[in-house]
Design brief:
mainly alpha; 19 helices; 0% strand; globular
Length: 507
Amino acid sequence: MLFNSVEFFAFFLVAGTAVVLLRRRVTARNIVLVTAGYFFYAQWDWRFLGLLLLTTLLDYVAGLLLDDGGELTPAPDDVCTPPPAESLARAAARPHRHKLVLAASISINLLMLGFFKYFNFFTESAVALFDAIGLQPNRATLDVLLPVGISFYTFASIAYVVDVYRYRVRAERSLLTYAAYVAFFPQLVAGPIERMWHLGPQLRAPTTFVLERLYSACFLIGWGLFKKVVIADNMATVVDHVLMHPAPRRTGALLAMYAFAIQIYCDFSGYTDIARGTARAMGFELLRNFDTPYLAPNPQEFWRRWHISLSTWLRDYVYIPLGGSALGRARTYANLMLTMVLGGLWHGAAWTFVLWGAFHGLLLCAHRAMTPWLKRTMKFDNPGHQAAWDVARIVGTFHLVCFGWILFRANSMDQLGRWIGGIVHIRDQITPRPAEAWGRVPSPWIWAIFVCLALIYLADLWLRERRREEAVFEITPWRRAALYAAGILAFILFGNFGGGTFIYFQF
């Protein structure tokens, strides 16, 4: 049941209406949310409902066992605020039995995630290694299916247990409320990765119906659908067209790189907008997951703006427990690399994702090493020179990120080599190119890439300047009407209504 399908909107109309009508009856409303979440998840594969329920029960019990009634540290203002040193110090002083409960909960969660997500990957890698050294092992016959959304709800559940352990939240006493947190359908299969300190209080309290909030929710849903149907799915056509050929030349390979950069941003941020819009229409607020990432001037800033719920999760539950930047320069670089490699592997069971994570780890390490030198040398008294330097940093960071997207999108190491080889124009030396093998990109598609990229940057610049995503409501009514009319016309003329799956559903 895709967000960009008629079936989902019929489902949401029923479930959302019931939630709004029951907004003051918290127990009944949460029963509807849990039922809707399980029904929504069952549309993908009902057999994995047991896995979702097992994760819920496991961490609900773990939270109760870890809650010793200790004083909580103040809740953060937003997800970008790291855990305070006080909560980490108090957690380190926990008794041994609490450490065992935490370790058991995290281990079981990671074992379930690892088995379903990485069994096939490690089996195939081991077979390939044995084949390379001349051995012929028996190939595994078990083909493990990947439960949709397992990475997202597992990470959300782990975050809850760790936050209880760190005295950031109190253990949830109501199993119904906790089940609603884990199975909240707008963010169940592709995030944002919610935190209990953010969503939990909303689930415990009655919600309110405000007409202005409904307008804002409709705008988010419409803008998300526009990015998915009009931009992302059309860019997917360009990428697939180029990569279906074995030896793309420089023009086609470069266009595919830019097209995929546009596709993945509009696809994933479009999903997030729809998720946040549907939640807001029911009276709930989800975490913001994107903040104009292609305007980032450096790799560190990019990860503060891209997939914010994951990047902050990795910071809070991987990078900081490893020691963060408090143990010296060499250890800091090692922690950055390990965190980003694990982040890459989280995205998918393939060596290309590992390379993608390692590439971004190297970028973060290089930026950290160069920052002191850049601060000393790149100072300009002339505002024009400073503006030119700022633009150069944004353009440079964007192209580094685009190169990383090649690693992310390639289906295999062989396709990765051919794609990069096509960009640097060395395909002829590697493999003879048959006539028309690279797949010529029609000139309208070139213009489409340019227009979509310009539209993204203009929209992000405008939103960045206004500092609020609903800034569209601040413009005059006739301009807003013209904007809506242009959007509807674009849907009609250029909408790709094939119902393409969102990219992050596979993670």
